[in-house]
Amino acid sequence: EQEKEDLQEKLKLREHPSGKSEDTLAPTKNTDSEMKQLQWKLKNLNNEITKQSTTIKSLKNEAQEKEERIRELQAKISRLERDINMKRPLIENLRSRLKASQENEKTYNETLENLERKVKALTADCLNKKTSIDSLKERLNIATKEKAQFEAEYHKAKDELEKKDLKLTNLESKMTETKRAMTELETSSSQQLHDMAKQSGQALKTVQTQLLLANDKVEEFITFVKALTRELQQSIQDLRTKIKKEKKRREMKTCRKGLSDEYFELAASILNVSRTDLEEILEVEDDEETAKTKMEFEKDKEWVLYIQKLVEAQFHFAPHLMDAILEKLNEKKKLIEEYSFLMKHTV
Q: Where are stretches of biased composition, namely Basic and acidic residues (predicted)?
């Protein structure tokens, strides 16, 4: 607008010049072109002002709409705040009720777990009782069958007894005659039974003594087998140790052949150790030899356990025990031959 006013002022000055000389105020081509340019700028500025006015009106309308929207939102926010303030005590109440419900639920869960454990225990007890009842039913059935069988036998015996009663009357007369013979027979029988009981007691004592001796012999045999097993295992381990030491000694001698005593002493002085310590350092076993030794130890341990199981078994274990002992003796024989060979061919 300011630029528009400046351009309008310039146009008025061009159209209504002040009282100066005619030479200075005479229009020229330059002023006409400048006049046209100013008019064109003024027209453009008018158009721009019209556009800006339209834009300003639309922005004012949008601002009014937004103000109305803001007022509506503020009213809605105030309503929501009132609703929140009204619902906050309800929420707190619900939270307290939820907390109480969770505590009650925890208590109910614990009670339910206790009841489930009791139900499981009662179920197991019921199953046991059911099994016991079933067994009692089977025994009752068996007893019922036996009762029926006994009743049948009873009736049969009763019939036979009635028949024998008739014979008994006939025999009673004979009983008086046989009583005397029975008395004598009882006397002789009691004497014979007394003698037989005395002989049986002596025989039983003899058998018990023999049984105790047999048990002692079995214990001695088991002790002997265990001791033999330990001694055999220990002797085999000693032979293995001797063979390993002999092999290491031969290796050390072979190694020292390539080195003079001067170089050996020089190596010991460099390492700041004695000659014996250097030899022990050179005698360190490799991983393969260590694994082999460990495997042999485990096999010996399994063999000892196998011997103990055989001795403690109830079946006939003599053939298996013999095979196991012979196997270890053969192993010892091979180790002795190997050690003798090494000692004969000592480097």
A: 1-23
